[in-house]
Amino acid sequence: MRPFVFPLSQHIGAPSVPVVQPGDRVQRGQCIAEAGEGLGSPVYTSVSGTVLEVTDDAVIVRADDVQPKEYVPLTAQTPLDYIRQAGIVGLGGAGFPTYQKLAVPFLNGGVVIANASECEPVLTHNIKAIERDCRPMIRGLQLAMDLVHADKGVIAIKAIHGDAVRALQQAIAADDRLALHFLPNVYPVGEERAVVREVLGTLLDAGSLPSKAGAVIINVETLQRVAEAVDDKKPLIDKDVTVAGKLNGPEVQVFHDLPLGMAVSDVLEKAGGLGKEYGELIMGGPFMGRRTSLDAPIVKTTGGIIAAETFLPGPEKIGLLVCACGADEKRLREIAASMGSAVAGVAFCKQAHEVKPGVRKCDNPGHCPGQVQRVMTLKKEGAQALLISNCTDCTNTVMACAPQLHLPVYHCTDGALRAVHHKLIRRIKA
């Protein structure tokens, strides 16, 4: 097994500050990096062992051969202090420190929404956790509601997840403050502003936070870890991960409580090992995931590891249509290069507005006004096909015009979805 690597930047905010030195002995659950200033979050070792190296970017630990189940407990005083001390951040991908979301109570009413959308295709670990035991998530939701003085809690989930829905309905029956809200089965219905729109009927501006609508939104696993921190005094040292794709085992597997810092290669070995051929390794989901490597560690925001299908050869020249809800321009260029295609031109969805340099937000996530003009522009620039990162609705609009212009369409999710025999993102009905 490779050494465990704990990056100092695993969240939005300042990097953590190491508090150990090479040669130090550390115990599972021990703090190895304190929170930095400005939305900081501490880092804990998930294994007992010896510190091998401390760099500007990470603390590296060689794990002992035999690992304890026990961990060094937290020693805070209040629920919010436990959440802060535990190093909990948004585990759905954004990585915003959770204590900061819960530090400002509502003055009048308010709602905490548990985001159980499991928005990305292929990823299933949140739904499986609910099916396995939904009580920790509900306990975390109730703790969050108490902290922000919310008078209502909503669990936003797709109706297609029947077993999870039934488990939740039974579990919340005794708390009249809690309710379910059923989401449509489209991407990106789990985006925070899409959740607010679907649950509360309020469309927020691209730069606005859910708090403007009187809401706090927290991912399922994050709520579970909140309950662990407060009730079990456990720091954030483990992660639920979906492992999928070209494996010597089942195509989609869920692992609960993998130790943070574990190398991707060792995670894949737990899933049966890599198949002989694959196109790339993706950390995250098919839409928003990034290319990773075998020696990269799983971190707080890791939701998935996908061994994608080998790349299909592309045309000589390809046009990129970038959506704010999917892969960005850099990622599409990376995929195009792996397909052997030169980029003829780049266009952005008309709703993908740049809110700050290099960061785009959709005006109305999942509701697309049409892409005919962008598609025609890319064809005029010499594109022989399109590579797109569009959401479900946006892709439908592309497919309404591109075939008529004799432009084949590739999607950023194709390699991941083909690897698990999932229906491709093209023309899809909700």
From TrEMBL:
<dbReference type="Pfam" id="PF13375">
    <property type="entry name" value="RnfC_N"/>
</dbReference>
<keyword id="KW-0249">Electron transport</keyword>
<dbReference type="InterPro" id="IPR037225">
    <property type="entry name" value="Nuo51_FMN-bd_sf"/>
</dbReference>
<keyword id="KW-0408">Iron</keyword>
<protein>
    <submittedName>
        <fullName>Proline reductase-associated electron transfer protein PrdC</fullName>
    </submittedName>
</protein>
<dbReference type="InterPro" id="IPR010208">
    <property type="entry name" value="Ion_transpt_RnfC/RsxC"/>
</dbReference>
<feature type="domain" description="RnfC Barrel sandwich hybrid">
    <location>
        <begin position="4"/>
        <end position="59"/>
    </location>
</feature>
<keyword id="KW-0004">4Fe-4S</keyword>
<dbReference type="InterPro" id="IPR011538">
    <property type="entry name" value="Nuo51_FMN-bd"/>
</dbReference>
<feature type="domain" description="NADH-ubiquinone oxidoreductase 51kDa subunit FMN-binding">
    <location>
        <begin position="83"/>
        <end position="227"/>
    </location>
</feature>
<dbReference type="InterPro" id="IPR026902">
    <property type="entry name" value="RnfC_N"/>
</dbReference>
<keyword id="KW-0479">Metal-binding</keyword>
<dbReference type="InterPro" id="IPR031001">
    <property type="entry name" value="PR_assoc_PrdC"/>
</dbReference>
<dbReference type="Pfam" id="PF01512">
    <property type="entry name" value="Complex1_51K"/>
</dbReference>
<keyword id="KW-0813">Transport</keyword>
<keyword id="KW-0411">Iron-sulfur</keyword>
<keyword id="KW-0677">Repeat</keyword>
